[in-house]
Design brief:
Blueprint: H1 2-48, H2 54-89, H3 113-119, H4 123-133, H5 135-155, E1 161-171, E2 181-191, H6 199-265, H7 271-306
Antiparallel strand pairs: 1-2
Length: about 300
């Protein structure tokens, strides 16, 4: 039951972050379309004064059309993510919901990475803590204990049985009458099993199978705990590297775009150079956002793997 609650919280977190990731991707596509539309107007004006060719106009128009197509896909991705979250929360998917959360920060301070990584540097310690706190592992431990107890019960079928009984009765016309008859009785029986049609042997065999199955289940759960923690750590480290690379990529792509735009305005670069630079800049922005949300989710994934996710 506890693990089911933790799973529900973690899955809600994953779907929730997916919505905001899709929302930010949509915003990037909107900004990109606005930027290219502005570039198209500039090229049209330059064409009117003879400093740009008709081919440049057509090329930029094709780029704007492609941006509109990308924007439609981004809007659909956002709507799909929102519908998935609402469905999981039990909200009608057609109900309008505004997604605003100031606690989600995608401008991450990379200086904190080293301190956070130091918390998770000892995998063996994390696994040990998880085995004490993961409800699903503790459930497997209790299941094994129960199976062993059932095995002991099955063994008892070969043991002798001692039964003790006793009683006291009062018989009379009225309660409290002097002529009541009082009777005491008791009994003791001792039985030794000789042959029960192999039922005890069958019960023991069934109990043995249950114990072996519970042991395998416990071992599998332990290996699952180790795998969950290891994968969560790999995702955390990868997202950190991706975010750092994304930040550098955005900075470089922005400078490159501004440079190409300036060169195009003075005629030393082609429109294709500008379009390529803009595509790289848009891709860099998208990658940085994805890495940021992957990092946020990875930290939640570690808490879930350890069994200490908050709810």
């Amino acid at each position: 039951y506890k693990r089911s609650k933790q799973t529900a919280v973690y899955q809600t977190t994953v779907d929730y972050l997916s919505v905001f990731n899709a929302r930010d991707q949509l915003k990037i596509m909107e900004d990109n379309l606005t930027r290219d539309k502005k570039q198209l107007e500039t090229i049209k004006e330059e064409k009117n004064v003879g400093s740009a060719s008709l081919a440049d106009v057509y090329q930029q128009q094709a780029t704007v059309s492609a941006d509109e197509y990308s924007l439609i896909n981004a809007k659909n991705a956002f709507d799909q993510a929102a519908a998935t979250l609402k469905y999981y929360l039990g909200i009608p998917v057609t109900d309008p919901v505004e997604f605003v959360d100031s606690s989600i920060v995608t401008n991450i301070d990379t200086a904190n990475f080293a301190e956070i990584n130091s918390r998770y540097s000892r995998i063996a310690e994390l696994v040990g803590n998880a085995l004490h706190s993961r409800p699903d592992y503790q459930a497997s431990v209790q299941s094994l204990k129960s199976s062993k107890a059932q095995r002991a019960v099955a063994d008892a079928g070969y043991s002798p049985t001692v039964s003790i009984s006793g009683g006291y009765s009062i018989l009379g016309p009225l309660v409290g009458a002097g002529n009541q008859n009082r009777t005491f009785f008791g009994g003791l029986s001792f039985s030794i099993p000789i042959f029960d049609g192999f039922q005890t042997q069958t019960n023991i065999q069934v109990a043995d199978v249950a114990v072996k199955s519970a042991e395998q289940s416990l071992d599998q759960t332990k290996r699952q705990v180790q795998l969950d923690i290891y994968q969560a750590l790999l995702n955390l480290y990868a997202s950190e590297k991706q975010y750092e690379a994304g930040v550098n990529q955005v900075a470089s792509a922005k400078i490159n775009l501004e440079t190409e735009q300036e060169k195009y305005s003075i005629g030393s670069a082609t429109l294709l150079d500008v379009l390529t630079a803009n595509a790289l800049y848009t891709s860099a922005l998208s990658n940085r956002v994805v890495a940021a949300y992957n990092y946020i989710q990875a930290k939640q994934q570690i808490d879930y793997a350890i069994g200490k996710i908050k709810y």
